[in-house]
Design brief:
The complex is a heterodimer of chains A (about 260) and B (about 375). Chain A is of the alpha/beta class and about 260 residues long. Helix content of chain A is about 40%, strand content about 25%. In chain A, a hairpin with a 2-residue loop joins strand 9 and strand 10. Chain A is globular. Chain B is mainly alpha-helical and about 375 residues long. In chain B, helix 4 packs antiparallel against helix 5, helix 4 packs parallel to helix 6 and helix 11 crosses helix 12. The chains are: A alpha/beta (about 260), B mainly alpha (about 375).
Amino acid sequence: MTSSTESGLLLKASGISKHFGGLAALMDVSLTIHHKEIYGLIGPNGAGKTTLFNLLTGLYSADAGTITFDGINLSGKQPHEVTQTGIARTFQNIRLFANMTALENVMVGRSVRTHAGVFGAILLNQKTRDEERAIRHRAKELLIYTGIGHHSQMLAKNMSYGDQRRLEIARALATDPKLLALDEPAAGMNATETAALRKLLESIRLSGVTILLIEHDVKLVMGLCDRVAVLDYGKKIAEGTPTEVRRDPAVIEAYLGGAIA
Amino acid sequence: MSDLLTHWRKFKREPYAVWLGFALIGFALVLLPFATDAAMGRSWVRILDHTLLYIMLALGLNIVVGFAGLLDLGYVAFFAVGAYLYALLASPQFDLHLPFWTLLPLGALVACMFGVLLGAPTLRLRGDYLAIVTLGFGEIIRIFLNNLNAPVNITNGPQGLNMIDPIMIGDFSFSRTQQILGITFSSVHNYYYLFLALTLLIIFISIRLENSRIGRAWVAVREDEVAAQAMGINTRNVKLLAFAMGASFGGVSGGLFAGFQGFVSPESFHLTESIMVLCMVVLGGMGHIPGVILGAVLLSILPEALRYIGPLEEALFGRVIVDPADLRLLILGLAMVLIMLLRPAGLWPSPVQRREFSHHDES
């Protein structure tokens, strides 16, 4: 557990800005995420949380600022290259491969850590065979780990909402990430499902994966996260432990509105 | 009844039953040209040959449209590239006569390159937009072939190229009647077996690709490109690979077509051919290899079979009331509309999809 690296720093974003036309979605946002922590990102709707997510995972490119992950500069990298360096994500509006089975969805996630090419696929030599077996094995393991092992042959689109959320996590874990970025994983879940999700996230953290979490469920964020950053109108207005953030007047103002005159 | 069905399902899983099935199909395929020849005449064996070429084309397009979900309306361009490459390198046009075994891989390779050439500028396009661009590409190739006779005569323009060398392997010419073990094999029979062998090879390659890391990446791109990217798939390479693989099948089929016909002209590579091949893929069941083969077989045989409408009309009414050629297209169109209404996933969709449909029925 305490085998964190010298600096303990996994991700460092500094001075990130992003504009969409005249709209400033993010202004000069900086944050640091340490190894093996659960880092929460909260804020009212439209605060720029998902934009920041898309910047971190290479889907958008920042207008200004740099992102360094595990010593590698991420600016200008394509999404698949970012995944290669070790960031895996889930989506706010679930984006599974709907017409593939749960198992196949997770197997796609292994793609980035495997190598078989066209000739390997056609000739199906021993190396490819072994690799394919390993992919399948790992995918099954992950399905069981996330608690949906019994649905492995089900089409993703037929799974229940909660299971789809789990499948997205399993698929992201299949890329062997160092940082797992979850965009509102508990959205639409009932209390029981959220509790189970919390257990899963804690166990993922114990396995050595750092987690970045966007979430509206304040109870979940406050109970789970080591540190929390609060975004409002594209600016970071607070950062710290959940208790610190909860007491921060700027946060209270952002969530509840300004003091009554 | 249900008892019988479960028995049948159990039987289907037995390995010896699978092999028995394969052996029976193989036996039938070997005998097919002789049976057809005896029952319906030699012209139908020729139709079988064409059917095999169409199966190759449909399987190639299936990789692009069925697996990777990239709607390609110019697929016949690759067929044309393969055919013209063979025609130019094995005819009196430039007095080049390369052997078949260099032409076949070369055709696949050059078509592959054209696939990448088409794929590269269209990487950002999807759906309708991609369809329009590929449609344009298909027409460009045909118009080029039509006009590359001046100032330097390369393709012989609209007259096309003739006297193309027949396919030869060693001293064995496929276009001559051959005696093997006392059995007479006419030209169409020889070609049938050659095409069958290559079709089986292409089926084999398709199946292997489908069940591989590459195949999964194609389907992932089809299902959700953004998610595929986020899962670490290099969507650019994966899409180019789909174009290249699909095109190479088209190139092989085109080369065989040129050698088989002995004549190619731009007329053979019209937009309607692209649409026909696409219909085969969609009608059979996009992304499902047996379905696509079924679609190709049906749509190659059906138009030929509908030629009998003319004589039928004469027999029934004493004269031809509607021109059979018009009626043929009408019936074909109607059949397609009906099938798409009644079986939107295709005649023989993949088992996963079908399970899907029955699931919906229950709920």
